[in-house]
Specification:
It contains 17 helices and eight strands. The protein has helices at 3-19, 24-42, 51-85, 87-104, 148-158, 182-200, 213-222, 247-258, 260-271, 275-286, 292-301, 304-320, 326-332, 349-358, 380-392, 395-398, 413-416; strands at residues 108-114, 117-124, 132-137, 162-165, 205-211, 230-236, 336-340, 363-366. The chain has an eight-stranded mixed sheet, with helices on both faces.
């Protein structure tokens, strides 16, 4: 028996309790029983670990879930207080929240994939009647509202219709009690494109752009999309392999692995606060100049179901993103454009160098302006303008007709047979 094996048992017990809708007290009891069994195993003669490890392990389990139970109890008390003394104000805040969410983004749509799965999409321009579409896949959290300013700026500078596809379960309109893995998120993106093509009877070219984990999703989508349908892939601060070895990955691993119940309980408590108070708290963290779309996106993450899906997806990323598919990268490297940050806690210089050595025909950029990994929070306009000027304003791109459904197929054979790397510029 190993510690990792019992951690897997923990996840299965947690999933079972959630599916049976058991209360936190019952779940806590199951964790303590499991911790007791771990204590017995760790004291076995054939298990060479110090006795203190078993004690720390059991105390951590008990303390984390006792804290979660206490926070949930406080949430129930707060709800009773609101019901007795402030029911009118509480109902008014809920109504305002719904009204604000409906007015935040006029270009926001919800795609029903069936089976209780919903995906948010954000569009700028006529994506249903065009020869090419710029498709942006977000990072984690995958709420499309984070990318509104980025997509709007890029569309305004280039005229290319932009489509942002959110992650299932990462917003109020797509939230679900089901937890979605990274591979399921990839499948959902492909289904969204298929639904949109069926609705419009149009099959445009795609400029794929992936931010952070969205870059990995773009690479996975290339395996299923026809090769002549994807023109380029813009990999922005890409996390595509071994992100668990990065500084940020190592720091967040304990929270993503064991702290999800406690974080979910805190999110439940915060979700009961009046809308005005939640907005003030978010404004204090993001700054007074933060746009409303950014505030609404953070509000959705504070929902218990949404937050749990974001954390679970992060855990799945660190668990499953291991080795690179080098053969897949070499086949598609001629249409990959990589953008790495100067100091990125999610993508080290070693990661960037490995990708650069494999993708010999790719275009690689290294930022020298200090744009951070989460550029959508502060540098959306700067990044969109740079992509527009450096990567999209070219004769072959300008020749595409954005308002026409005609498909323009370009010959990339000369690029595919070229072994030399393009000249690399720097921002």
């Amino acid at each position: 028996p190993t510690l990792n094996g019992y951690c897997q048992i923990h996840d299965r017990l947690n999933t079972l309790c959630l599916s049976l809708k058991l209360r936190s007290s019952v779940r806590l009891l199951s964790y303590i029983i499991m911790a007791t069994e771990v204590d017995r195993v760790l004291h076995a003669p054939n298990f060479k670990q110090p006795w203190i490890l078993s004690g720390v392990f059991m105390v951590c389990f008990a303390a984390a879930h006792l804290a979660a139970l206490g926070v949930q109890l406080a949430a129930y008390v707060w709800r009773m207080i609101l019901a007795i003394f402030g029911a009118r104000n509480f109902q008014q805040s809920i109504a305002t929240d719904v009204e604000d969410n409906a007015m935040v983004t006029s270009a926001l749509q919800v795609i029903d994939l069936g089976g209780g799965r919903y995906v948010d999409i954000l569009t700028f321009g006529d994506v249903a009647n065009t020869s090419a579409v710029y498709v942006c896949i977000p990072g984690n959290p995958g709420n499309v509202r984070f990318y509104r300013l980025f997509a709007e700026t890029l569309h305004r500078h280039t005229g290319i219709p932009c489509l942002v596809i959110g992650h299932t379960g990462h917003s109020h309109t797509s939230q679900s009690t089901q937890l979605y893995t990274l591979e399921e998120q990839v499948d959902h993106k492909l289904r969204v494109l298929k639904v949109l093509e069926t609705r419009s009877n149009n099959h445009p070219l795609y400029f794929l752009a992936g931010h952070s984990i969205g870059a990995y999703i773009c690479l996975a989508m290339l395996k299923d999309l026809p090769m002549d349908r994807v023109t380029e892939c813009h990999m922005l601060f890409p996390t595509v392999f071994h992100i668990g070895t990065t500084p940020r990955g190592q720091a967040l691993w304990p929270v993503l692995r064991w702290g999800r119940p406690a974080v979910g309980a805190v999110a439940t408590l915060i979700a009961l606060f009046p809308l005005s108070l939640r907005r003030r708290l978010i404004g204090f963290v993001l700054g007074d100049e933060a746009p409303d779309e950014m505030t609404d996106a953070v509000l959705s993450i504070l929902s218990p179901f949404v937050g749990n899906n974001c954390l679970f997806m992060g855990y799945d990323e660190l668990s499953t993103l291991l080795e690179l598919d080098e053969e897949h990268l070499r086949i598609n490297d001629y249409r990959l454009k990589w953008y790495f940050g100067q100091r990125d806690g999610w993508v080290t210089k070693c990661h960037a160098k490995t990708i650069e050595d494999i993708c010999v025909r790719s275009h690689v950029e290294y930022c020298t302006k200090g744009i951070g990994h989460g550029f959508v929070l502060q540098d959306s306009i700067t990044k969109a303008e740079w992509i527009s000027e450096q990567w999209l304003k070219r004769p072959d791109v300008d020749g595409l007709r954005w308002s026409s459904p005609t498909i323009v197929v370009r010959d990339y054979s000369h690029v595919r047979n070229t072994a030399a790397r393009p000249v690399v510029g720097q921002l």
